[in-house]
Design brief:
Helix content of chain A: 40-55%
Number of helices of chain A: 9
Distance between the termini of chain A: 15 Å
CATH architecture of chain A: 3-Layer(aba) Sandwich
Radius of gyration of chain A: 17 Å
CATH superfamily of chain A: P-loop containing nucleotide triphosphate hydrolases
CATH class of chain A: Alpha Beta
Strand order of the largest sheet of chain A: 2-5-1-6-7
Structural class of chain A: alpha/beta
Order of helices and strands of chain A: EHEHHEEHEHEHHHEH
Oligomer: homodimer
Number of strands of chain A: 7
CATH topology of chain A: Rossmann fold
Number of domains of chain A: 1
Low-confidence stretches of chain A: 62-74
Shape of chain A: globular
Chain lengths: 201, 201
């Protein structure tokens, strides 16, 4: 069975940087935005639109209650984007060892018994990281720290909602992970080396 | 300022073995039961009695409510054991770098900005570990898996209560730690090497 490493991450805690480094050290393929690009290709929707749908729990236009069961009716695009995302995650896992960031992959691939990592950090570190990476984000560069902090909280709330909607598990709760790391004081490179050491036989 | 590493641990998840190995690799003094022995020496109480008091939140014989404030009145021994434990933890931290297991040391020593680790594991692993270490525990060796599982849960409930009573924080919640590790599939030796790598400059 292929060795799968999944990385859940709070926005601003360096999950992508760490994941890339880890994949490089292990010589594993790395999947993050690549999944969005592939969905866009398969559905002929724009990447921006796909990303918006693929990373949010559905807005439910017609909630239907049947007894105690609650059914979510998604717009057609939402269903096909989620379904493609699920298929692609399963396809890449079946092809080879890999590192997958976000998207509830830890849950979707649970029968692979992936090594499930979650990275988080304090707000000060998140803000600093966002400022460093904001060169292309005009809107963000104009924000005060308070506004940016609120924006980061919103994004993380949305990630938590997405994860909880699709997995029925609590995002960032240790019972769903093998390793949780506060990246406020740990460099992504060093963390990647340590994880490589831990998972090697 | 001395480098302090604190280890919170679920009973049965190998915290002691990991802590000893980490202290050995770093050449740091290691404090766990040593603290109990020192309290016993200072208070002239037996080690067994001290351990029982030092690891449980107080039984409150006379709860007093004053407005919305709740005061815990502990028996004299309880107060002096807790107070000695607090003093000893602060003394050892002020003396040199060290590894301290349990006892809310992460909170007591917060101004040192310790590297705060929490180890946990699934129940199956806990039971296996307890069986391996039970050679001197007649009572435990007679238990069925179900009885042992209940016993492990009780001990961990008691550790959570103790931590929450003295720190006001949630035991095992990632917001209070820098690294949380599920030790179900990771050997203590390997984890110690990885942590050494992460905390080295």
């Amino acid at each position: 069975m292929n060795k799968i490493i999944t990385i859940g991450r709070e926005f601003g805690s360096g999950g992508r940087e760490f994941g890339r480094k880890l994949a490089e050290l292990l010589a594993f393929p790395y999947y993050d935005r690549e999944i969005i690009a592939e969905i866009a290709k398969r559905t002929s929707l724009s990447e921006k639109y796909v990303q918006n749908i693929a990373e949010h729990k559905p807005v439910i236009p017609f909630p239907i209650h049947t007894g105690r069961t609650f059914w979510a009716v998604m717009p057609d695009y939402g269903q096909s984007v989620q379904s493609e995302q699920h298929n692609i995650i399963r396809e890449v896992a079946s092809k080879s060892d890999c590192v997958i960031v976000g998207r509830g992959a830890d849950y979707i691939l649970r029968e692979y018994q992936p090594f499930r990592i979650f990275v988080y950090s304090d707000m000060e570190t998140k803000i600093t990281r966002c400022r460093e990476n904001q060169s292309n984000d005009y809107e963000q560069s104009e924000m005060t720290d308070k506004e940016l902090s609120r924006r980061i909280e919103q994004i993380n709330k949305s990630r938590a909602d997405y994860y909880e909607f699709y997995t029925g598990q609590k995002w960032g709760d240790k019972s769903n992970y093998d390793l949780l790391v506060n990246t406020s004081f740990i460099k992504p490179d060093k963390l990647a080396e340590a994880v490589k050491l831990v998972i090697s036989n």
